[in-house]
Amino acid sequence: MRVDLHTHSTASDGTDTPAELVRRAGAAGLDVIGLTDHDTTRGHAEALAALPAGLTLVTGAELSCRLDGVSMHMLAYLFDAEEPTLLAERELVRDDRVPRAKAVIARLNELGVPVTWEQVARIAGDGSVGRPHIATALVEQGVVPTVSDAFTQQWLADGGRAYVEKHETDPFEAIRLVKAAGGVAVFAHPAAVKRGRTVPESAIAAMAEAGLDGIEVDHMDHDPDTRARLRGLAADLGLLVTGSSDYHGSRKTVALGEFTTDPEVYGEITRRATGAFPVPGAGGV
């Protein structure tokens, strides 16, 4: 069984529609895929309608969080998408994305980069606008060669010249909200240092005490030594270990299924969840 629990569609900052994403996942030989767009579940219905036979969908979202000035992401799986408190928090985070993006564009303009809101809005389409869309605009302008090259201190990384904060949820509150909605909480790419500052292991230990279920260990932004260290930390704290592609379509070079989650861990995630359940494909449309 091949399980990839972290992917993105055009509902946030991926380049594949939800339907295209699940079809690609089936063609790639995956058995289970998690759709975890940023702070939104808007892509779930389309993905479910197109889900091919032989592929199971795990519904989820990647929640934007911040702890002591450090931006971090919390993967929420199989929660009740209509639970009102978590829904209101997701909407609060999502609604702050547009003014934040416009503020980033203003800073880029001050730095001499002629990116416009119209350009970024075109790139984002119907998705929740975010820094990857602005990074794509920088690629279109010839400022950087790839989206990843825009996430440096020179441009869009946390604390970078064009960085602007947005509303982000306290991770302890995110864990509480996810659990209250019947979901499972996994800290995404916790040691992705190239993205900026990361939270200390002491904070991960505190989150484990607060109900965190797991940490994403096998990820393109973790080198082998980091993965080994995180595995040891997870064992010490009694946390589940997941692996995922963090697929964004053509916006990143990683392929679907490049990193995967152990089937036994996937089974434990499904056992812990009470807000929603994995959905097996029936052939799609």
Provide key terms for this protein.
8 strands; 11 helices; alpha/beta; 8-stranded mixed sheet; 285 residues
Question: Could you characterize the architecture of this molecule?
Answer:
It is a single chain. With 285 residues, this protein is α/β, with parallel strands linked by helices. Helix content is 38%, strand content 15%. The chain is built from 11 helices and 8 strands. Strands 1, 2, 3, 4, 5, 6, 7 and 8 form an 8-stranded mixed β-sheet that branches. α1 links the parallel β1 and β2. α1 crosses α2. It is globular and about 50 Å long.
Structural class: alpha/beta
- Give helix and strand order, one letter per element, not per position: EHEHEEHHHHHHEHEHEHE
As residue ranges, the low-confidence spans are none
Largest sheet: 8 strands, mixed
Mean pLDDT: 95
User: What would you report as the Rg, rounded to the nearest angstrom?
Assistant: 18 Å
Beta-strand fraction estimate: 15-25%
Produce a short descriptive summary.
This protein is an alpha/beta fold and 285 residues long. It has helices spanning 18-27, 44-50, 84-95, 97-110, 117-124, 131-140, 147-150, 171-180, 201-209, 224-237, 263-272; strands spanning 3-7, 32-35, 56-67, 70-77, 184-187, 214-218, 240-243, 279-280.
